[in-house]
Amino acid sequence: MEPEIRIRIADELLMFLPAARRRPRQGVAHGGTSTLGHIVESLGVPLPEIGALMVDGERVEPGYQPAAGDEVAVLAVPRPQPVPLDAGEVAPRFLLDVHLGTLARRMRLLGLDTAYHNDMDDPALVVQANEEGRVLLTQDRGLLRRRALWFGAYVRGSRPDDQLRDLLGRFAPVLRPWTRCTACNGVLATVGKEEVERELADGTRRSYDVYGRCTDCGQVYWRGAHGGHLEKIVHEAVRAVAAARTGADGAGPEGSGAGVPETPESAAS
């Protein structure tokens, strides 16, 4: 019989295993040549989702060469998960793949620096994430296995509400709602009504007095018909971040509606 190593996988990571092997304890045949990181990834768990690898109680790196009989523990990333920040940054910067467009708009609504493209292939995504220091968010496990990627994360959930909740719980980022363009990620600036009234429909001009404009693409924003729905997203997001930081479910301050409001046409619904 080929020698084995025994692996215990954190419950949070079992979702990555094939259904037939979805159990926390695994016996894995080991011929002595593969690294521990390769073995764990071959089970289905991407390395960016691993918080630590422990062998007989000691932390090891993915390049560790296990020996027959080793007892391995595969731990999930901590929540909140620290992200290296550049000087002056207060929150991580993100890049989302093609399947997460609605999540991208909601993250921009919350003031998170969020790049998104619907026409960029995997190698280009990795290049942009690395060059700009962005956390790459995806539901593509193969993308997370690319060795060149500096920092990636798997987004859990099929609904945008669940995806946003997972993202906020994982990183607990500082939020600055109503400060970014949901269309292009540019920064919003308050503008006087007289500066934009020629671009407004008659009903909008009569109904609203507070406006903003994206400093990059020029999109005009105002608090429109979707304002209540967006306020709810912001409110719940602020509470989710506070809960993630304190560990108290539902704790934290109320969401703020301050800043430049959204337009119904660009609403992150």
From TrEMBL:
InterPro entries named among the record's database cross-references: Mut7-C_RNAse_dom, Ub_Mut7C
Region (Disordered): 245-269
Residue intervals of the Mut7-C RNAse domain: 92-233
Domain Ubiquitin Mut7-C residue range list: 3-75
Entries under Pfam families matching the protein: Mut7-C, Ub-Mut7C
Transmembrane region(s): none
Gly residues bias (residue ranges): 249-258
Superkingdom of source: Bacteria
PANTHER family in the cross-refs: MUT7-C DOMAIN-CONTAINING PROTEIN, MUT7-C RNASE DOMAIN-CONTAINING PROTEIN
Protein name: Mut7-C RNAse domain-containing protein
UniProt organism field: Actinomadura rugatobispora
